[in-house]
Write a structure and sequence with these properties.
- This protein is mainly β and 765 residues long.
- It has six domains: 298 residues, Alkaline Phosphatase, subunit A (3-Layer(aba) Sandwich), CATH 3.40.720.10; 75 residues, no CATH class; 75 residues, Immunoglobulin-like, CATH 2.60.40; 80 residues, Immunoglobulins (Immunoglobulin-like), CATH 2.60.40; 75 residues, Immunoglobulins (Immunoglobulin-like, Sandwich); 75 residues, Immunoglobulins (Immunoglobulin-like), CATH 2.60.40.10.
- It contains eleven helices and 54 strands.
- The strands form 15 sheets. Strands 5-4-6-1-7-9-2-10 form an eight-stranded mixed sheet, sandwiched between helices. Strands 14-12-19-17 form a four-stranded mixed sheet, with no helix packed on it. Strands 23-20-27-25 form a four-stranded mixed sheet, with no helix packed on it.
- Strand 33 and strand 34 form a beta hairpin.
- Helix 3 crosses helix 4.
- The longest helix is centred in the N-terminal third of the chain and has 21 residues.
- The protein is flat and about 95 Å long.
- It starts with a helix and ends with a strand.
- The N terminus and C terminus are likely disordered.
C-alpha cells in the first residue's frame, strides 16, 4: 500500500511534461564509456506519465542474455558488475528451468514450453495492445521478420529465443507479426528517432548474448563477449538526454545458469541463479536485494509498470512479486529513505561478520553471514530494530525497515572424543553428536563443541553390537571423552549372488557370499547345487553345471558359537553355447554394447556374452562417443563349444549427415560401414575412424536424393555431409481398395502402373 500511495502522490505533483529539445542519435555497437560519477548521482527529473500508467515508467525494455551463472557474470562482466553496483540488482533470481525456449516463454506469457510450435495463449503482446500501448521484439541477426525457422537456429539467430514468433495471435495475420517482430535495423531507427515502444524485448544474437564464443576457450570469454556488446549498446543510451530514456526501465537478465546449477525459486528445481539488474533513471541507486525472485517477476514487473492485466500463467503478484523496491528513486516519486545496518561479533576474537556496517535503501533485503575463528563456534544472532533477526540460522536475511543492529555470537569450543574397541583394524564406524555425524576407520572420532549437554548415537556396524549405543555427553569448560565397545554379533549374510547369473551347460558361474560378524572363523555350507557342482567350505565357490534348468541355491554361514545365517540365490543354466564379444581399445570402464539377433547387451567390462542356441547370427556394435569399432557389424557362426568375436575400437570422429528438402517429420536413413541409422529429424550422426567409406541414402517415397551412393573421407576431424532431397515432379498417390495409399517415387509413363521396390506406382494422364 505504501508503494501505491507513493506513485499516487507523484501523479498529483507531476503537472507538466518536460520538454526535451535535444536530438540524440544512438549507434548500435559503439563502445560507450561508463557514465561519470557526477551523472550517476544527479539523476534527471521524471517525465509526467500519462494517466493510464500506474508508475512513472512508460517504457519497459527487457534485454535477455544467455547461459551464465550470476557469479560468472559479476566476476567476468565488468560493465554488468558496474550496472549491478550503480543501479538495482536482484542477487537471488531463479530461472524456472534449463532449456532456453521455456525461459523466453516465461518472461512473455508465463508459460514454460520446451517445444517450438504455434501456441494459443495470453501474452504481453495481447496485454499491451488491449491497453492501447505499443510493443515490439527486436531480434538481432534474424534473417527475416517473424522468422520461426526450422531447425530452430543458425549460428547467429535462434528462433527459440523469439517467443512472439510462436504465439498464434501474433503470427496470424503474418503482416502483424512482420511489423512487430523485427531485426535490429528498425531498433536503430527507433533509438535514433526516440520512438521506442512502450514494451520492447531485445534479444542479441548468439554471440552478443553470451551464448557463443567470440574468441577464447572458456565461459569467461562467453560472458565477456556479451558484456562488451551490452556496454556498447546500453551505455550511450543511459548517457543520453533523450526524453524516452528518462521514463524507461531496462530489465537485464539471463535465461538460465550453467547446467550444473539446478536450484529453483522457493526451494524448487529450476535453471539456477541468474544475473538480473533493473537499470535506468528511476531505478533505486546502489540497491542490492537478496529476496528470492523468479524470472516470472520480469513478467509481473512489466504488468505492474505499464498498468496491464494478467496473462493468467505464473503471474500472481503474491507468488511472483514485481520488483517494486527496485524503483524507489526519489527522482521518480520514491521515498529514497535509507537505514543503517550495524554488524559486530561477540567476542570480537570469536569470528567475523559480513556484510560490514553500511547504509541501505528502505525495503532492502540484506543476507548476513558469519565465519568463526579457530577454536570458536557460531552460537546465534542477536538483533535489534524492526526487521532484525534473532536466532540460530547461519545466514538469515533482514529487511531494512529501520536502523538495525546484528551481533553474531561465538562460543569457545572444547574437544569431545569417542574411542572404540573391538572392531577389526580399518573398519568404518560413526557417531552422531548433537545432530552432527562423524565417521572414521581409526579408533577415534573427534568433535569440537561449546559448553552444553549433547545427545549422541553410535551408528550400527554389520555383524557387531555396541555398548553404549546412545547417551548424552556434557561439555563444561574442558575436554570430554566417551568409550564404546563393539562385540561380534551373530553372522550376517549381506549378499549371495551367482556371477554370472546365467550360464550354458558346461559354463562356469562363481557363487559369491559376503558375510560378516560372528565369533571365530565362519563355515560355509551350500545346498540345492546343480548337477556337476560340489559344495565346499569357501565364500567363493566355482560351479560348472552339467544339466540345464533354473536352480535355487542356498548357503548357510555358521560361526564358532553355532550361530548361523542363511541366504539363497538363483542360477539359470541354458542349453545354448556362449557367444562372446571381446573388446580392445576402449578406456577401462567405458560402457559399450552389442546387438545379436535383435537382443541388446551392454557392459563396462571387456567382454559381453550371449548364451544362445547354435546357429548363424548377425551382430552390430553400438556407438561409443569418440571411438568406433574397426568392424561395426557382421555375421558369426556359433559353434557348440562357444565362439569369441574380437572387437577392436579405434579413435573416431563424428560424421554428420544434414538433410534438406524433406517435409518436417519425414523418416529418412543412411547406411555407413554396414550400420543403418534412421530419423525424422534433419541430422544423422556416426562415429567413424579415419578412412574412406561408401555410404547409401535410403529411398524416400516421392523424393530423389543427391549423392547416393558415394563416399566420405575421414581424416582426423569431424565432417558434415549435405544430403539434398528433391520432390519428384508429377508424382500422384493413388488409393486402392482397403484404403492402402501407394506413393509414386519416380516418374512413369502417364497412366501406366509399374512396380518399384515392392510398391506399385502410377502417373496421372
Amino acid at each position: 500500500m505504501a508503494t501505491t500511495n507513493r506513485w499516487r502522490l507523484f501523479w498529483v505533483s507531476s503537472i507538466a511534461l518536460l520538454a526535451v529539445t535535444s536530438t540524440v542519435v544512438l549507434a548500435l555497437g559503439n563502445a560507450g564509456a561508463f557514465p561519470p560519477a557526477s551523472q550517476s548521482s544527479a539523476l534527471p527529473s521524471p517525465l509526467a506519465p500519462a494517466a493510464t500508467f500506474p508508475t512513472p515508467i512508460q517504457h519497459v525494455v527487457v534485454i535477455m542474455m544467455e547461459n551464465a551463472n550470476a557469479s560468472w557474470v559479476l566476476q567476468n562482466g565488468s560493465y554488468q558488475r558496474y550496472l549491478a553496483n550503480q543501479y538495482a540488482y536482484a542477487s537471488q533470481t531463479y530461472s524456472p528451468k534449463h532449456g532456453s525456449n521455456g525461459d523466453y516463454f516465461a518472461i512473455t506469457s508465463g508459460n514454460t514450453w520446451s517445444t517450438l510450435k504455434e501456441y494459443s495463449t495470453s501474452n504481453l503482446a495481447d496485454l499491451t495492445a488491449t491497453a492501447g500501448l505499443s510493443w515490439m521484439t527486436f531480434e538481432e541477426s534474424m534473417p527475416k521478420p517473424c522468422d520461426a525457422i526450422s531447425p530452430s537456429h543458425t549460428a547467429a539467430y535462434n528462433s527459440g529465443h523469439n517467443p512472439f514468433a510462436w504465439y498464434q495471435d501474433v503470427r496470424n495475420p503474418a503482416s502483424y507479426c512482420d511489423s512487430h517482430d523485427v531485426g535490429f535495423g528498425p531498433l536503430s531507427t527507433d533509438l535514433a528517432a526516440g520512438t521506442m515502444p512502450n514494451y520492447a524485448l531485445i534479444v542479441p544474437n548468439q554471440t552478443h548474448d553470451a551464448h557463443n564464443l567470440c574468441s577464447g576457450p572458456a565461459w569467461e570469454t562467453l560472458v565477456s563477449c556479451g558484456d562488451a556488446w551490452l556496454r556498447g549498446f546500453l551505455s550511450p543510451i543511459l548517457n543520453s538526454s533523450a526524453a524516452w530514456v528518462r521514463s524507461t526501465a531496462f530489465l537485464i537478465t539471463y535465461d538460465e545458469a550453467n547446467l550444473s546449477d539446478t536450484r529453483g525459486y522457493m526451494g524448487s528445481t529450476g535453471g539456477g541463479v541468474v544475473y538480473t539488474a533493473a537499470v535506468g533513471p528511476c531505478a533505486t541507486p546502489h540497491y542490492t536485494s537478496a529476496t528470492p525472485y523468479s524470472l516470472f517477476s520480469i513478467l509481473t514487473t512489466t504488468e505492474w509498470m505499464l498498468g496491464l492485466g494478467h496473462t493468467g500463467h505464473h503471474d500472481s503478484w503474491t507468488t511472483y512479486p514485481p520488483l517494486m523496491a527496485f524503483f524507489n528513486n526519489p527522482s521518480c516519486g520514491g521515498s529514497g529513505a535509507t537505514y543503517t545496518l550495524s554488524t559486530a561479533a561477540t567476542p570480537a576474537a570469536g569470528g567475523s561478520v559480513l556484510p560490514p556496517s553500511g547504509t541501505y535503501a528502505a525495503g532492502s533485503s540484506v543476507t548476513l553471514s558469519e565465519s568463526p575463528a579457530s577454536g570458536y563456534g557460531f552460537a546465534g544472532w542477536r538483533g535489534t530494530g524492526s526487521g532484525s533477526y534473532t536466532g540460530s540460522t547461519s545466514s538469515p536475511t533482514v529487511t531494512m525497515s529501520s536502523n538495525l543492529t546484528e551481533v553474531a555470537l561465538f562460543a569457545p569450543l572444547y574437544p569431545v572424543s569417542f574411542r572404540e574397541t573391538g572392531l577389526p583394524a580399518g573398519t568404518t564406524w560413526s557417531v552422531t553428536l548433537g545432530g552432527v555425524v562423524g565417521s572414521s576407520s581409526s579408533t577415534t572420532i573427534a568433535f569440537s563443541l561449546a559448553n552444553g549437554s549433547y545427545p549422541y548415537t553410535v551408528g550400527p556396524v554389520s555383524g557387531y553390537t555396541v555398548l553404549p549405543g546412545s547417551g548424552t555427553v556434557g561439555v563444561a569448560g574442558s575436554a570430554a571423552s566417551v568409550g564404546v565397545t563393539f562385540t561380534p554379533g551373530a553372522p550376517v549374510v549381506s549378499s549371495f549372488i551367482a556371477v554370472p547369473a546365467s550360464v550354458s551347460v558346461g559354463g562356469t558361474a562363481v557363487l559369491e557370499v559376503a558375510a560378516s560378524g560372528g565369533s571365530g572363523g565362519l563355515q560355509y555350507a551350500y545346498s540345492g547345487l546343480p548337477p556337476g557342482c560340489l559344495s565346499a567350505n569357501t565364500p567363493s565357490l566355482p560351479c560348472t553345471p552339467s544339466a540345464g534348468g533354473t536352480y535355487s541355491i542356498g548357503v548357510t554361514v555358521t560361526d564358532s558359537l553355532g550361530r548361523s545365517a542363511s541366504a539363497t540365490t538363483s542360477l539359470t543354466v541354458g542349453s545354448g553355447a556362449p557367444l562372446t564379444f571381446a573388446e580392445t581399445g576402449l578406456p577401462v570402464g567405458t560402457e559399450w554394447s552389442v546387438t545379436v539377433g535383435g537382443s541388446l547387451a551392454s557392459s563396462s567390462t571387456a567382454t559381453i556374452t550371449f548364451h544362445v542356441p547354435v546357429a548363424k547370427y548377425s551382430w552390430v556394435v553400438g556407438a561409443v562417443p569418440n571411438m568406433a569399432p574397426k568392424k561395426p557389424a557382421g555375421y558369426v557362426n556359433l559353434s557348440g563349444s562357444g565362439t569369441t568375436v574380437p572387437v577392436t575400437f579405434v579413435h573416431a570422429y563424428l560424421v554428420t549427415f544434414q538433410e534438406t528438402g524433406l517435409a518436417a517429420g519425414t523418416t529418412w536413413s543412411v547406411s555407413l560401414r554396414g550400420v543403418t541409422e534412421s530419423s525424422t529429424l534433419s541430422t544423422l550422426t556416426f562415429w567413424t575412424p579415419n578412412g574412406t567409406y561408401a555410404y547409401a541414402i535410403g529411398a524416400v517415397p516421392g523424393y530423389t536424393a543427391s549423392g547416393s551412393p558415394t563416399s566420405v573421407v575421414v581424416v582426423h576431424a569431424p565432417m558434415t555431409v549435405a544430403v539434398t532431397f528433391a520432390a519428384i515432379s508429377g508424382a500422384v498417390p493413388i488409393a486402392y481398395p482397403g484404403d492402402v495409399t501407394l506413393g509414386l517415387t519416380t516418374p512413369a509413363v502417364p497412366g501406366r502402373l509399374f512396380e518399384l521396390d515392392g510398391s506399385i506406382f502410377v502417373r496421372s494422364t
